[in-house]
Amino acid sequence: MEQNNVSFQNVKTGEPLSQKEIDEMFMRRCLQLAKNGRENAKPNPMVGAVIVSGDGRIIGEGYHVRCGEGHAEVNAFASVKPEDEHLLSQATIYVSLEPCSHYGKTPPCADLIVRKGVKRCVCGCVDPFAKVQGRGIRKIREAGIEVTVGVLEAECLELNKRFITFNTHQRPYIILKWAQTANGFLDNGGRGMAISSPFTKMLSHKLRAENDAILIGRVTDERDHSQLNVRDWSGKDPMRLVIDRHHPCFEGLDFSRGKTEVLQQIMQYLYNNKVQSLIVEGGAITHQAFLDAGLWDEIRAETLLSTSVENSVTSGTPAPMLPHNVRLISHEAYDGNVINTYERM
Ligand SMILES: NC(=O)C1=CN([C@@H]2O[C@H](COP(=O)(O)OP(=O)(O)OC[C@H]3O[C@@H](n4cnc5c(N)ncnc54)[C@H](OP(=O)(O)O)[C@@H]3O)[C@@H](O)[C@H]2O)C=CC1
Ligand SMILES: Nc1c(N[C@@H]2O[C@H](COP(=O)(O)O)[C@@H](O)[C@H]2O)[nH]c(=O)[nH]c1=O
Ligand SMILES: [Zn+2]
């Protein structure tokens, strides 16, 4: 369990770090590396790996750069210098996600770890992907390598929340997003209005670029002719979906059994098409259907804090009520607008 002959100190107190603190320090480095895959690893998860010698020196590092290419562990082992190879038998490999155990586009990393013969393997979190789900950890343990799971687990899960939700719940990660006046309207007397500022509109387009699909209800589409594209940021436009019984967004969508059933069919369609994340942009009826079905992971509510707007907008489509089981995770202020982001408690 102990790193051989190694002692790290807390920079402030001078106290020696516990093994847990040492593990967290190297896992934090894995997370830093993993984030470099943000643009190109998709639809694969972002993963970072660090190899630490028995005397506490990083002798290898890597991350999953691009889908179809080497995984983090492969790149980390490849970076070990020939003169350090003999240190592997006493080394620990840290990986932010459980090493894979299956033949995908590349061979199993669990086999590579066993072959390299390290002493210990520390994983941030279990991979919920159906072909892995603990099999990588088991394979490594059965080869006699000590395995620790769950170091900085919350951070590791958060980094790949889209991939994790998709594989755990067989549906995309769902963000409900709306903008409202301070007195709680989504529009002005049923007519679409610009509630966002140019800056927060740009942030919405950034959010669109970061997610795979975007969905609105029929009334919003009819009134606003929503483009739902990424024109104020750079990146790919998300898949555009409108819930409209007269123009179903895919063949076979059955509207005969109520709103929740419609959403369940859409979730199945998105899962089948490997859509890992979805922004729901409203309107109120559409948001309410997702809330009623419990189909949401995050809510981003923007509020325009203007009394003159409040005085002039006295009727319209009421903004959805926040459900009771939310936790505020971020509060950002931009000019006269605030964006509150909530996650499920
Ligand atoms: N400020 C903001 O952030 C936003 C404001 N808006 C504003 O909101 C207003 C529209 O909102 P609202 O009136 O609530 O309407 P919606 O845009 O939510 O559309 C509702 C309609 O979509 C269809 N629909 C939605 N969900 C389902 C489901 N699960 N199953 C079956 N059908 C479904 C139904 O169509 P049908 O009736 O045919 O059955 C339903 O009546 C617009 O004025 C728009 O400008 C809209 C989005 C964001
Ligand atoms: N008015 C309003 C929003 N409205 C949402 O954005 C859609 C328009 O997208 P686009 O056609 O691409 O500009 C519109 O139909 C509705 O879903 N959103 C916001 O963040 N802030 C706003 O002030
Ligand atoms: Zn792998």
Explain what the structure shows.
The protein is 30% helix and 20% strand. The chain is built from eleven helices and twelve strands. The strands form two sheets. A seven-stranded mixed β-sheet has the order 8-7-9-6-10-12-11. It is of the alpha/beta class. It binds NADPH dihydro-nicotinamide-adenine-dinucleotide phosphate (NDP), the ligand Nc1c(N[C@@H]2O[C@H](COP(=O)(O)O)[C@@H](O)[C@H]2O)[nH]c(=O)[nH]c1=O and zinc ion. Residues 179, 192-196, 204, 216, 220, 224, 226-229, 281-282, 302 line the site of ligand AOF.
Secondary structure blueprint with pairings:
Elements: H1 19-34, E1 48-52, E2 58-63, H2 72-78, E3 92-95, H3 109-116, E4 120-123, H4 135-142, E5 146-149, H5 153-159, H6 161-169, E6 173-181, H7 198-210, E7 213-217, H8 218-224, E8 239-243, H9 259-272, E9 277-280, H10 284-292, E10 298-304, H11 307-312, E11 326-334, E12 337-344
Parallel strand pairs: 3-4, 4-5, 6-9, 6-10, 7-8, 7-9
Antiparallel strand pairs: 1-2, 1-3, 10-12, 11-12
The site of zinc ion has 5 residues, from loops.
